[in-house]
Specification:
By secondary structure, the protein is α+β, with helices and mostly antiparallel strands. It has eight helices and 13 strands. Residues 171-252 form the Eis-like acetyltransferase domain.
Length: 259
Amino acid sequence: MNQQLTFAPADDGLWEQYSQLATRAYGHPVGDITHLREHADLQVAVRGGRVVAGGLGLLVDQFFGGAPVASACLGDGCVAPEERGEHLAADMVTERLRPLIDRGAVISTVVTSSTGYARRLGWEAPTGVLAWAVATDDLKCSFTTADFEVEHGLTDEAEALQRDLARQWNGPVHRPTWWPRWKHDKSNLTTYRFARPGHLVTGLLSLTTKRHERHGMSLVVHDFWAAGQPTAAAMLAFLGHHNTRARTIEFRRGCCGGR
């Protein structure tokens, strides 16, 4: 590792090299490197003509106090295994943030499962963010759908509801126009919307299935946005009856919002 290390924005060739590096470092292909190519910024570290580290960055708005705030969102970063132990990841974060700060980012969010390492680099969760699982039978016994109608599919009206509810919380992303399709394709989501007959949509639910290793399955909720307690109750009742093979309903961190 005596050759000089340089940092650069990725051109087509470096982007392909980084995709191959990420597959080697993570142990599997990283789909976002392809799917977000039109929207994300990719910064890489190069040594001897080879990409040895890098990561994606997105400039998006996050809601705080009801207002959109420019945020640098980082994800899908990695360092070549043979380059680890030299603090390259920390240097890479600085280089990834630089162009996003130049474009107006004033806060930064990182998407990672390595929460301890993220804290050492300076990130901290401002509040507890939890995921939890509920037995399907408990939902069946506790909630009823009342007089809500349920329809399949995402509509402009449902997206507008999500934006309105997200604005009432601190932290949710103000989703760009390409965001819903990316998330649905990435996670194989199915979306439902809830409304009383003849009224506007008041609930948005997106979920996918997770098969258990031996038998059965779980439902995994990615979006749970309800404009009030009656809508939330109807959505929970729907989850309880959605699939007779689902033993549990798993709610991902950050999936829920409402008023």
